[in-house]
Amino acid sequence: xxxxxxxxxxxxxxxxxxxxxxxxxxxxxxxxxxxxxxxxxxxxxxxxxxxxxxxxxxxxxxxxxxxxxxxxxxxxxxxxxxxxxxxxxxxxxxxxxxxxxxxxxxxxxxxxxxxxxxxxxxxxxxxxxxxxxxxxxxxxxxxxxxxxxxxxxxxxxxxxxxxxxxxxxxxxxxxxxxxxxxxxxxxxxxxxxxxxxxxxxxxxxxxxxxxxxxxxxxxxxxxxxxxxxxxxxxxxxxxxxxxxxxxxxxxxxxxxxxxxxxxxxxxxxxxxxxxxxxxxxxxxxxxxxxxxxxxxxxxxxxxxxxxxxxxx
Length: 312
Ligand SMILES: NC(=O)c1ccc[n+]([C@@H]2O[C@H](COP(=O)([O-])OP(=O)(O)OC[C@H]3O[C@@H](n4cnc5c(N)ncnc54)[C@H](OP(=O)(O)O)[C@@H]3O)[C@@H](O)[C@H]2O)c1
Fold this sequence. Notes:
The protein has 312 residues and is α/β, with parallel strands linked by helices. The chain has 2 domains: 3-132 and 271-303, Rossmann fold (3-Layer(aba) Sandwich); 145-267, Rossmann fold (3-Layer(aba) Sandwich). It has 11 helices and 15 strands. The chain has helices at 46-57, 73-82, 95-101, 107-112, 131-142, 159-170, 183-192, 233-238, 253-261, 270-285, 292-303, and strands spanning 3-4, 14-16, 32-38, 61-67, 85-90, 104-105, 117-121, 124-128, 151-155, 175-179, 202-204, 215-218, 241-244, 247-248, 266-267. The strands form 3 sheets. The protein has a 7-stranded mixed β-sheet, with helices on both faces. Strands 11-10-9-12-13-15 form a 6-stranded parallel β-sheet, with helices on both faces. The longest helix is centred in the last third of the chain and has 16 residues, at 270-285. It is globular and about 55 Å long. It starts with a strand and ends in a 9-residue tail after the last helix. NADP nicotinamide-adenine-dinucleotide phosphate binds next to helix 5, helix 6 and helix 10.
């Protein structure tokens, strides 16, 4: 099974200078530096994605991987900033520490209690969470699945589930039922959103429903181990879309089960990965890249098929 965490595949560290490409190496002091920090980090796809965004938008920047020791996240961030770093993506297992480290949190990061994007400026450190907007854009854009009025079943109650609740509510879903293997964590998640608007639409579930669900989002990490959360087949069969945040060359166990049960459509989380990166890029650079060609290229690479070049 080749399923992957959001940020867990190869692509070389990137120094990107569209003007100088092919002529001379960029001066590292003269370009804005960004990185993704995590543990492990060697297989992150983020440098590749941000290189593609930079080339497409004509932005001059460098984007690397930073391996932080498990007990050295804050020191790694401080070093990077002291060397002139402009921003970081944050991945497993540091998203909670990143929220604690930020001077200011965006409302969606505060609601999630987790940060995947840090922006450094003279005003301090801003922490944001772009996972939720990434999911919403992938669903409503690439998958053409409007969210207004949809009844959502959210599987899982970890950081990824927390990150998507507010953006889903803001997108106008009719309801979000949160079902988690450890029931108390689902209750804690719902309680944490007590102050947010429209929380009456949010409920922790003790049992997985067998009907009345339009969209099932798997925000568990079960797919990384080729297993799936237990969802009644009738529930899978009745849904219009089953979405797994984990992605890979083969459908995850959850997506295979959904397809076999008769769910109308299934999708993995590669599009969310690209969209959350695009929103980080927008925060740093003020321009939102076109994600479609970047998604297509990554999809082809992961699936092992050559990308087709769209006609101009
Ligand atoms: N595509 C993207 O851009 C993107 C973005 C963010 C995250 N993700 C993916 O989303 C997944 C979750 O991330 P996270 O940060 O929320 O992780 P996390 O905080 O560690 O939470 C893991 C969740 O998965 C549940 N779980 C784990 N194994 C399970 C199993 N075998 N059966 C049922 N439930 C299981 C846990 O349930 P318990 O509480 O019972 O342990 C918990 O709810 C990861 O695989 C991550 O790679 C993808």
